[in-house]
Write a structure and sequence with these properties.
CATH topology of chain A: MetI-like fold
CATH superfamily of chain B: P-loop containing nucleotide triphosphate hydrolases
CATH class of chain A: Mainly Alpha
Radius of gyration of chain A: 23 Å
Strand order of the largest sheet of chain B: 6-7-8-3-9-10-12-11
Shape of chain A: globular
Radius of gyration of chain B: 21 Å
Number of domains of chain A: 1
CATH architecture of chain B: 3-Layer(aba) Sandwich
Number of strands of chain A: 0
Oligomer: heterodimer
């Protein structure tokens, strides 16, 4: 019995993952989302190497080439200083991925422990955490983010800090609710009866059972955080031109509408598809991981 | 081994009322004794079980396990006691962490309290599962792949992992199919045979089960013990009208039904607002008007050797 092979030991898990994969594959919208997200990840991974004009990402100037419509050489056209928009959109994917990962990651790191603490502790601790969360939730996220960036000064790092600071309350709410329902489960009582200390109950028994809704929310938030960062960029508070950030590109391209439509159209399309992709993926993951939460 | 003194567990509802789930219970279990705690649902018997292991904090009273007062124990002291006192829960479906394999669930107490790891751990867990009659193929499955009876066996294996001296069994068979119930009960009986020094508190609403497993029985009604004695005494000559009603409700084999079945009407009253006098008087077929609804009966010795809380006892003796 001590010498079981890997496949024997994990037979049940493997079967479980196969079943999940089968459910996921059955949903065409989830697969569509997955494909978009994979393309986006691929762009972020190898964008700088496949971009036809990689030097255009940061501040080259080819004024003789400015505002060219889409063509074989410039698939998405060129902007007002002659930069290839296709290259900039490709390289911008990496910026967006970075923003999405950092913002959702920081939000989770703040929100999940606070939520578990609030759900498990009760009393004044819970009241304090939840009321602070309520205050953050009662202010529209983007407005608060604008205020924070306004105070810190525009820039992509500050935009990420601001978005992270407004993003965590959602996780507190989600995890607190889940913890409240889990802490009355018999297996949590059983763990206490076995003499498990609090941190072990939280991280071994509660957290793994909270994971499904967290993963679902995180995948949707990836899209929303990218959108949020693009909004800040559009308002001139996020990434500054000529940094190849999609929101900032639209912001300048807007001045050239509608005659030079490609300038803001292609970055916009990139944002649209990425957000759509992460949302569809999130929906699909919810169906697989958390079938009861479907609304 | 386990001493419960005047235990009260009240759950506050609103500002100044409380559900008196357990309202002054004293029960003492000697080493190796097997005591049954019976009562209808809502009588507070599960609350006693949870409070006995401090899964709930008692409102007042004292709980001692092996002479150690755990009423106010915290942190390390409490964990130390819990190593030797284990509980088996009613619903095996929810008492196993759905994200843990059977191996992990059974290994958990060993990981928490011992330094056994690696191969030794594998061997010990396999031995435990074998002891409760589960083959090794279940080791790396998840709980949802097992039947109710199998899960309950896993729970028993987990509870036995640390060789507990006290076991609280909270209706361990009532969520299972009848055929599986019998297997589990047989197993528990066998276990008592193998481990005669293990004390167990068996909580159940099923008198037949208690009679099969326990040497002593306490009958609970609305947060109090109304009758207590050895199993033979209580089953041969029940003194309290409630015990008589419970016993007459036990189905007999082959359709032999005793003619004088006592039927209780109505539900158990709300423990938030218990009736005056004897809490059982609104449903008691033998209630004495002017006595039972006014005065609270005291716990006293009956002629049959049991302790009973009923006015009829004094009335009949006089």
């Amino acid at each position: 019995m001590t010498d079981v092979t890997f496949s024997e030991r994990h037979e049940s898990s493997i079967r479980e993952y196969r079943r999940m994969a089968a459910t996921f594959r059955r949903s065409s919208s989830a697969m569509f989302g997955l494909v978009i997200v994979l393309v986006f990840l691929l762009m972020a991974l190898i964008g700088p190497w496949i971009a036809p004009f990689p030097e255009d990402a940061l501040g080259a100037v080819h004024l003789d080439n400015k505002l060219q419509p889409p063509s074989a050489a410039h698939w998405f056209g060129t902007d007002e200083v002659g930069l290839d928009i296709f290259s900039r959109v490709l390289i911008g994917a990496r910026v967006s991925l970075q923003i999405g990962l950092i913002v959702t990651g920081v939000a989770m790191l703040i929100g999940v422990p606070l939520g578990m603490l609030a759900g498990m502790s009760g009393g004044w601790m819970r009241e304090t955490i939840m009321r602070v969360t309520d205050i953050f939730l009662s202010i529209p996220g983007l407005i608060l983010a604008i205020a924070i960036v306004g105070a810190l000064g525009p820039g992509i790092i500050n935009a990420m800090i601001a978005l992270s600071l407004v993003w965590w309350p959602g996780y507190v709410r989600l995890v607190e609710a889940k913890t409240l329902s889990l802490r009355n489960e018999t297996y949590v009582d059983a763990a206490r009866a076995l003499g498990a200390p609090m941190h072990r109950i939280l991280f071994v028994h509660i957290l793994p059972n909270c994971l499904s809704p967290i993963v679902v929310k995180a995948s949707m938030d990836m899209g929303m955080a990218i959108l949020g960062a693009a909004s800040l960029g559009f308002l001139g508070l996020g990434a500054q031109p000529p940094y190849p950030e999609w929101g900032a590109m639209i912001s300048i391209g807007r001045n050239y509408m509608p005659d030079w439509w490609w300038y803001s159209f292609f970055p916009g399309l990139a944002i649209y598809l990425t957000v759509l992709g992460f949302n569809l993926l999130g929906d699909g993951l919810r169906d697989v991981l958390d079938p009861r939460q479907r609304s | 081994m386990l001493e419960i003194e005047d235990l009260k567990v009240h759950f506050p509802i609103g500002r100044d009322s409380a559900v008196r789930a357990v309202d002054g219970i004293s029960l003492s279990l000697g080493a190796g004794e097997r005591v049954g705690l019976v009562g209808e649902s809502g009588s507070g018997k599960s609350t006693v079980g949870k409070a006995a292991l401090r899964l709930l904090s008692p409102t007042s009273g004292r709980i001692k396990i092996a002479g150690v007062d755990i009423t106010k124990a915290q942190g390390k002291a409490l964990r130390h006691v819990r190593r030797k006192a284990q509980m088996i829960f009613q619903d095996p479906h929810s008492s196993l962490n759905p994200r843990m394999t059977i191996f992990r669930s059974v290994a958990e107490p060993l990981i928490l309290h011992t330094r056994i790891r690696g191969r030794a751990l594998n061997g010990q867990v396999a031995a435990l599962l074998e002891r409760v009659g589960l083959p090794g193929q279940f080791l790396h499955r998840f709980p949802h792949e097992l039947s109710g009876g199998q899960k309950q066996r896993v729970c028993i294996a987990r509870a036995l992992a640390l060789d507990p001296t006290l076991l609280v069994l909270d209706e361990p068979t009532s969520a299972l199919d009848v055929s599986v119930q019998a297997q589990i009960l047989e197993f528990l009986k066998e276990l008592h045979g193998q481990r005669p020094d293990m004390t167990s508190l068996f909580i159940s609403h099923d008198l037949a089960v208690v009679r099969f497993l326990c040497s002593r029985v306490a009958v609970m009604y609305l947060g109090r013990i109304v009758e207590e004695g050895t199993t033979e005494q209580v089953f041969a000559a029940p003194q309290h009208p409630y015990t008589r009603a419970l016993l007459s409700a036990v189905p007999l084999p082959q359709g032999r039904q005793s003619g004088n079945r006592i039927r209780l009407t109505g539900d158990i009253p709300s423990p938030a607002n218990p009736p005056s006098g004897c809490p059982f008087h609104p449903r008691c077929p033998e209630a004495i008007a002017g006595v039972c609804d006014v005065m609270e009966p005291v716990f006293e010795q009956s002629g049959a050797g049991t302790s009973v809380r009923c006015h009829l006892l004094t009335r009949n003796a006089a």
